[in-house]
Design brief:
Keywords: ATP-binding, Nucleotide-binding, Purine biosynthesis. The structure is a single chain. It is built from eight helices and eight strands. It is an alpha/beta fold. It has a four-stranded parallel beta sheet, sandwiched between helices. Helix 1 links the parallel strand 1 (8-12) and strand 2. The longest helix has 12 residues, at 16-27.
């Protein structure tokens, strides 16, 4: 094993992506421990008596996992980033990055700041008045989105007209929203970027 490789990596979250991460780590001869429910997909792949059973948003369980590992990573962003920041072990991606992607509007602002084009969006209050103002300024339809706990289409609602604002607000049921100008959809492209600990991309 190369000297830079951790002896034992903790994965916060043991779903499908956690399982894929554990499988890849196994090929590199890196042991993994998982924090998630008892029979989560990743735990089904990796047999160990040292796995931690519990919620991956539980600070005490994150600390328990950290005590058993050299470095931690996550499979999903819905974790306690503050607990990871204070766990005393290296965390990759960094807790500051995790906090950024937990807020989808802050994430968009970060992309814009770094020169990436996105559809125009604005943080809005969860009121019909605020949403109506956005629609009148930027047109209907538009997207109303949750800033928190949004992924894979969850937390998105199409506001088709003035009359559908209340329906979208009830559907999202969130105080933390942003509105996004309608963008004609052509296709989706995914790009994966990997950076090493020395900054190489």
């Amino acid at each position: 094993m190369n000297s830079w490789m951790p002896r034992q990596r903790g994965i916060v979250g043991g779903g499908q992506l956690g399982r894929m991460t554990a499988e890849a780590a196994n090929r590199l001869n890196i042991r993994t421990l998982i924090l998630d429910a008892e029979n989560s997909p990743a735990k089904q792949l990796v047999s160990s008596n040292d796995h931690v059973t519990g919620q991956f948003s539980d600070p005490a369980k994150i600390a328990e996992l950290a005590n058993k590992c050299d470095v931690l990573t996550i499979e999903i962003e819905h974790v306690d980033a503050d607990a990871l920041e204070n766990c005393g072990k290296p965390v990759m991606p960094s807790p500051s990055t995790i906090k950024l992607i937990q807020d989808k509007y802050a994430q968009k602002e970060h992309l814009i700041k770094n020169g990436l084009a996105t559809a125009h969006s604005e943080a809005v209050e969860a009121t019909e008045e605020a949403c109506s103002k956005f629609g009148q300024t930027h047109g209907f339809p538009f997207m109303l989105k949750s800033r928190k706990d949004a992924y894979d289409g969850k937390g998105n609602s199409v506001v088709k007209s003035q009359d559908s604002i209340s329906t979208s607000l009830n559907e999202l049921n969130s105080k933390f929203l942003y509105a996004e100008k309608w963008a004609p959809f052509v296709k989706e492209l995914a790009v994966m970027v990997v950076r090493s600990i020395d900054g190489s991309v």
